[in-house]
Write a structure and sequence with these properties.
Number of helices: 6
Helix content: 40-55%
Radius of gyration: 21 Å
Largest sheet: 6 strands, antiparallel
Number of domains: 2
Distance between the termini: 21 Å
Strand order of the largest sheet: 4-3-2-5-1-6
Oligomer: single chain
Structural class: alpha+beta
Order of helices and strands: EHEEEHHEHEHH
Shape: globular
Length: 198
Amino acid sequence: MHSALVSFDGVNSAVEAFSAARDRSGGASPWTSEVGFVEHHENGKLVLRGTFAGHYVDVDEALHTSGRGTEEGAVGGAVLGTLLAGPLGLAVGIVLGGTIGSQVGKPNVTDAEPEPLAERLRAAVPPPGSAIVLIAESSDVDQMVAALGPAGKDVTRRALSEEETAALRSSLSASPTASAGPSEEGEEAVEASDSRGS
């Protein structure tokens, strides 16, 4: 297993470079369905979307709010508001408590973030920037780099050890397996193929 990270200045640059490279390669190359995208915004928040080592990841740290924290904060704020200011305090307490709770509570309603991978990507992609990430066979990495051409001048690539591959897969275990893509036979054929391969 090999990894490649192609860095770009600007949070939209990676997707733009990928689109152009995919069009040049005809879109049929396997690497085009194996990439993930990273956006590292100036506020330090990451957006991870796409395929990372065979798992589909869709995480936007700016959208992480805690449903449980919102509920607990609203209830606590309502009780405190009622005690301090009666009915008006109840309304204000619910709103303020819910808002504070959503931001300080532990997120439980957004996609699970593969934290070890996210922290490495945060360190590797300076803000404001973006990157294309490919974790695949060496030949797929070669094809992607060739398709990117001069746009892919800032490439970091390396072979992953068995231990690194296992740690990466463990980090991504909460994320769903990536789709094999559209099929002429449809979803039932893909599912049947998956069950025979298991």
